[in-house]
Amino acid sequence: LSNGTAITFYGGVNEIGGNKILLEDKGTRILLDFGKSFKVRSRYYDWNETLRVANGVGDFIAMGLLPNLNGIYREDLLALAGRPKKEDLLVNALFLSHGHADHADYISFLRDDIDIYMGETTKTIVESLEDERGRSTLEFEITGFKRRPIERGSERIPRKIVTFTTESTRNKRIQVDSIEVEPIHVDHSIPGCYGFVIRTSSKTVVYSGDLRMHGSNPSLTRDFIERASAERPDVMICEGTRINETTMTREKDVYDVCKYFVDRVKSHLVYADYSYKDIDRFTTFYNVAKNSGRKLLVHNRVVRYVRHLSTQGNPLKLPQLEDENLAIYKPREKSGTYVDDDYSPEDRDLFGSQNALTAVDIKNDPSKYIIALGSYKIDELVDIGPKEGLYIHSASEPFNEEGSITEEKMSNWLNQFGLEKIHAHCSGHASGRDLNDIMEAVNPTVLIPVHTENSGLFRLFQGSKVMVPETGMKLEF
Ligand SMILES: [Zn+2]
Questions:
Q1: What is the pLDDT of residue 61?
Q2: Rounded distance from Cα 93 to ligand 1 centre (Å)
Q3: Ligand 1: centre distance to CA 235 (Å)
Q4: How many A from CA of 208 to the centre of ligand 1?
């Protein structure tokens, strides 16, 4: 046990995502994010393959997906793994930067007596995604879980989730024993993202989360940089996804590219593929549709997601289902004949909207729509039956969590239906140029790269203040 401040990385080292950072001060310990490592997972498993539940945390620890730590995992999952259940609680709290899987999903394995702090919007997003996935999967039980093995009629155990907002923490920092945490909003490719300024009894540590300067709301990131630099931090943990890149396509560029091509294809079908959690991109496609005289056609998950984010006065000013430039796609289910009985009561309600359209409606006049069903519902092309058209690929993040099929299969689908592909995307991550500016503005004594495969470039650009972590090695300050 060290007397000062110590930081140990259990994920996010030499990889994009999987952030799991333990910060200690005297006897107090907090975790910063506890994400899923796509890099390690994809070494052994296909993206849609589920790991054995019968061995609890056992397979996850054996394969390097979870750190081998005592005192943080759920008792039911320890028991299944044949590990002793009664362990002293190792960490007091977890702070989640945002709702992306590579930061959030492995909270699923943590004990329910750990306080989980997250932004209010992140909680909304996580709950919305949990609703959509319905059947619970061991790797996505963030807000609560049922003890494994699940018995008939067993109770769901809620986690102790504590939410914050920029307003709620303005003059009131979050205190966890000797550690004080100040969340500060940043801009990224999902709403509700935060970086943290953390004060231990002797040091100030800044954690960037994921951020960018070229998105729709750069002022959020600017606020973070300003607060972080004012604290003259001893340590900065900074993401470096795109430290090796200088391209800075902005959200507005995505709009311009899409608008241009949609106008060029005139009466043909346009199919858009983007991550539906990226609400800036949803807004971009909505605006392209609106200004091209088309409707943006989305699936039921998107409508529910937008509804969730629009509660409490619709702060993001999102268009709702009643909007004349938005439509919801009603797919064939069960009987294949669109009868009410085929749908859940919730879907029946949505599909009762006058903006609900079937493949038949679209087939009659494809030029009226931008079909944003993504790769998730690409098989609907069979019903829509285009002979030619435009496919806009609008994602480039290394991993797509929404059931992406491989690029090769996707291009076979496009060939089968005569769709020509273009690419238009704005990254969720700051470019190397912006990252260097951010790190220089914050000006920490020690700089630790995370969420990057290019730590060497940090050294090259930022010099001897850079400390490259190793997984599981405790860094003391
Ligand atoms: Zn992210």
A1: 98
A2: 21
A3: 21
A4: 11
CA 189 to ligand 1 centroid distance, Å: 7
Find all residues with CB under 8 Å of 235, minimum gap 6, and list them. Answer: 5, 7, 203, 204, 205, 206, 444, 445, 446, 447, 448, 477
**Which H, E and C letters describe the chain, residue by residue?**
CCCCEEEEEEECCCECCCCEEEEEECCEEEEEEECCCHHHHHHHCCCCCCCCCCCCCHHHHHCCCCCCCCCCECHHHHHHCCCCCCCCCCCCEEECCCCCHHHHHHHHHECCCCEEEEEHHHHHHHHHHHHHHCCCCCCCCCCEEECCCCCCCCCEEECCEEEECCCCCCCCCEEECCEEEEEEEECCCCCCEEEEEEECCCCEEEECCCCCCCCCCHHHHHHHHHHHHHCCCCEEEEECCECCCCCCCCHHHHHHHHHHHHHHCCCCEEEEECCCCCHHHHHHHHHHHHHCCCEEEECHHHHHHHHHHCCCCCCCCCCCCCCCCEEEECCCCCCCCCCHHHCCHHHHHHHCCCCEECHHHHHHCHHHEEEECCCCCHHHHHHHCCCCEEEEECCCCCCCCCCCCCHHHHHHHHHHCCEEEEECCCCCCCEHHHHHHHHHHHCCCEEEEECECCHHHHHHHHHHHECCCCCCCEEEC
Distance between Cα 338 and ligand 1 center (Å): 37
209 CA → ligand 1 middle, Å: 8
For residue 112, the CA-to-ligand 1 centroid distance in Å is 24
Measure 100 CA to ligand 1 centroid, in angstroms.
5
Q: Work out the percent of the chain whose per-residue pLDDT is above 70.
A: 97
Percent of the chain exceeding pLDDT 90 equals: 86
* Gap from CA of 188 to ligand 1 centroid (Å): 7
193 alpha carbon – ligand 1 mean position (Å): 8
CA of 190 to the centre of ligand 1 (A): 7
Is the Cα torsion angle 174, 179, 183, 188 positive or negative in sign?
negative
pLDDT digits (tens, 9 = 90+) for 348-388: 999 999 999 999 999 999 999 999 998 888 999 999 999 99
pLDDT at 405 over 70: no
- The verdict on pTM exceeding 0.90 is yes
Q: How far is the CA of 210 from the centre of ligand 1 (A)?
A: 5
CA of 400 to the centre of ligand 1 (A): 12
Residue 241: strand, helix, or coil: coil
Q: Ligand 1 centre and the CA of 96: distance in Å?
A: 11
Q: How far is the CA of 196 from the centre of ligand 1 (A)?
A: 15
